[in-house]
Amino acid sequence: MYKKQILITETIENQISPSYKELLGFGASIHPDGENRILLIIPGQNIKELAEQIAIENNIHTLAVEHEDLRYPNPHLLEKILPEVIRKYMPSNICMMHNVRTCQIAASLSIQIDRPCITGVESYEIQNERSVFTRMMFNGKLIGKTTCKADQFILTIIPGAFCGSFTPDRTIQHEKTEIIKINENASAYKPIRIIETISKDNRLEEADVVVSAGMGIEIKERIDLIKKIASIFSNAAIGGSRIVCDHGWLPYACQIGETGKQVSPKLYIACGISGTMQHTAGMKKSGCIVAINKDPNAPIFSIADYGVVEDLQSFLPILAARYDDRKKNP
Amino acid sequence: MKILVCIKQVVCSESSLKLNPDGKWIQETDSTEFRMNRFDEYALEEALLIKETNPNVTIDVVSVGPDRVKEVIKKGLSKGADNGVHILNEELGYCPPRKIAQQLADYAGKQSYDLILTGVMAEDDMLCQVGPMTAAFLSIPCAVSVVKEEIDMLNRIITVQSEMESGKVEEVVLSLPALLTIQTGINQPRYPSLSNIVRANSQELIVVQESFQDDPTDKVLLLSIDYPAKSSTICILEGSAEEKAEQLLTIFHNKSLLK
Prior knowledge:
The structure holds two protein chains of two kinds.
Chain A: E1 2-8, E2 11-12, E3 15-16, H1 20-29, E4 35-44, H2 48-58, E5 61-66, H3 75-89, E6 93-97, H4 100-112, E7 117-121, E8 123-127, E9 130-137, E10 142-148, E11 154-157, E12 178-181, E13 189-196, H5 203-206, E14 209-213, H6 223-230, E15 236-240, H7 242-246, E16 267-271, H8 277-280, E17 288-292, E18 306-308, H9 312-328
Parallel strand pairs in A: 1-4, 1-6, 4-5, 5-12, 6-11, 7-11, 14-15, 14-16, 16-17, 17-18
Antiparallel strand pairs in A: 2-3, 8-9, 9-10
Helix pairs in contact in A: 3-4, 6-9
Chain B: E1 2-6, E2 9-11, E3 34-36, H1 38-53, E4 58-65, H2 70-79, E5 83-88, H3 97-108, E6 115-119, H4 130-138, E7 142-152, E8 157-163, E9 168-175, E10 178-182, H5 194-202, E11 206-209, E12 220-226, E13 235-236, H6 241-254
Parallel strand pairs in B: 1-4, 1-6, 4-5, 5-11, 6-10, 7-10
Antiparallel strand pairs in B: 2-3, 7-8, 8-9
Helix pairs in contact in B: 2-5, 3-4
């Protein structure tokens, strides 16, 4: 018995996001006891050749959806075309890698095709023959387990959460790549251009150590404490969570996370950072993660290598003073 | 021009969260603190900024929930919204986004709003679904994670910058009516003014009974919530603050990262 999976990936100016491999790995693993037949939908401006190439490389069925306005991810246009494709293919599940746009597509599709939708899935298990999905809630302070009444769902899955690799099944012959050209003049949602807002300053990416501030610092003046700690390292840079940047305590160039910079230094020191998925998406590949937080239940401790449960206001000055002592009396 | 801002009342997650005995939602007591969802504060502020620079703008704030959500609706009025709408849903505990979106769309569909704003996500369930679902129910275009907007009422379009990953933003033009989900950082939410607080205290809210639902909306079931497990390999440093500082410095020294 096989189950059909529709996987939807994204392209920007006909470049496919490399995360589609992770998506294939997830799609192939979701029903571990049976065969998973995959249809990978690749929307783009001029994407047919790429779709054929991916079909051959992975021995899967692909569908290219083409429209000029699909040169950027375009939820509005996809929402018009996907319900018909889904009705035709009748998949068990529809999965995407989680990001801002796919989340929009998932939610909107859920209404249009009347299927349950769970966004931001971090893990899943089968309990009593039912799929149970785990995801973060309450700014990461709690995790929730969610299921669907019907075992047919739309999911967006957190990048990096599933590391199952995809092995092409050469025993089956995949169907020929299909192509849908959309002729519609979609004027209600018109993509214009993509703007890079991130600074070209690469200090964060090149630093061996990133000392990062979260709302646990409480007041802007304590950025100085973060700077002081960064100064004890030979090659360190300062980063921050989105909310710290929203408050103007650090420039957006310092923002680490899903929508900011992605860093993987040898050492990441998270100071007063609760550790939501939006933040950890930008730092979880760091070599060593030290979390300093007064809340012992902060989710950052679920990915940290070393945890210090202390108040930053008192602890960081002690850390700096102890360093100075060591320098004076080596 | 009519703007609707959809706001949610959420538990202050800075305070410690206690779970219900059945582990299905958080424990709500008399001392539980609630506030306006932080993302919705930015959505409301953006509406107020539009009102300041455009003539004839009215702003309605709407919230779905039990009696206590009146507080955030009043908060919206005290910041400068014109009318407050309360869609009464007596259920305490978790309400799935589909159900909220359906209630919002049922109400908004009868009112001909030019623009609907809400936050990118709710701080409690963090699903990012209510905005796009509401737009889907209403069949209007939607842009998510908006960090800048500019309205052209003459041509009935709105140009937005919609955030993507890794510091990219996409510029998109939407025809009105449209729904935007607003990202933090787009503005600096204001504090309520004294005159608006006085008005908010005396102004009646428009109360709408929850609309009839003919299909079961709880297709997604929240089974349980819990505290995140600590990393199984984490080393929690023990001792006095001074001892912890020494241990950290030794770790840093052994990695040859110190100056």
